[in-house]
Design brief:
single chain, mainly alpha, 0% strand, globular
Length: 233
């Protein structure tokens, strides 16, 4: 069989396993899902599974990586659109990312519940490093464009990109902390109280982002109130 066909067959089979795993994360939860569940669904042997993934954590990493692939394909073209000014690129990027996550809220929440467990700390760090590598070039180009247009002001576009992406990650961590704390009963807050905490977090991180990029106050919107409520309700 030609090498191209072998590679296509391998990719197709691997994606089939990921499709089943994603479904099981929805229906059973990652912690309850076993490799045997996947074998039973696909009618394959354990050896066949390990041909594609060497462990359950490797499967989780692949699920997140595929989600990152989807995000990259959807959002990088926005950052690279030559017809848009820099600030509009940033605002559209944030708005589209927020809407995209909201459309698959249940899956995001299922991943969130396992993503912040201690045993996945290394995987989390690794995936963020990969995301930084993927997004950074386009993000830096937008910052450089904004500096040329006079809407952004920084002498360090590369470093500003890294700091900006860490701020975005930090905001996501804050949301995760609030959501998971509420689910676990560790934080007894009303929906309105959670909304207000998230609202303040968005305002604070947005302010920090504008300062890092040298943007005027109120020129960047990371997340609106309606989108925040999606994660409170």
């Amino acid at each position: 069989m030609p090498r191209v066909l072998i590679e296509e067959d391998y990719a197709a089979r691997r994606n089939e396993i990921l499709d089943i795993a994603r479904k099981l994360v929805y229906t059973k939860g990652y912690e309850q899902m076993s490799i045997q569940d996947i074998l039973d669904e696909m009618k394959i042997s354990k050896g066949a599974f390990y041909h594609y993934f060497d462990s359950k954590p490797a499967l989780l990493e692949a699920l997140v990586d595929r989600l990152a692939d989807e995000a990259e394909a959807k959002f990088i073209p926005l950052l690279n659109d030559p017809a848009l000014p820099a600030l509009e690129k940033l605002c559209r990027y944030f708005s589209s990312a927020v809407q995209w996550k909201a459309t698959q809220k249940d899956y995001m929440l299922a991943l969130l519940r396992i993503w912040y467990s201690d045993e996945n700390a290394l995987t989390r760090q690794k995936v963020f490093a990969i995301m930084l590598q993927r997004i950074a070039p386009s993000f830096t180009s937008v910052i450089q464009q904004g500096v040329q247009e006079g809407t952004l002001c920084t002498s360090f576009p590369d470093q500003a990109t890294e700091i900006s992406l860490y701020l975005i990650l930090g905001l996501g961590d804050k949301f995760g902390e609030i959501i998971l704390g509420h689910e676990a009963g560790a934080v007894q807050l009303s929906a309105e109280e959670r909304f207000q905490i998230m609202q303040k977090a968005v305002a604070a991180y947005t302010d920090a982002l504008e300062r890092v990029l040298g943007a005027s106050a109120g020129s960047i919107q990371v997340m609106d109130d309606a989108s925040i409520r999606v994660w409170v309700d």
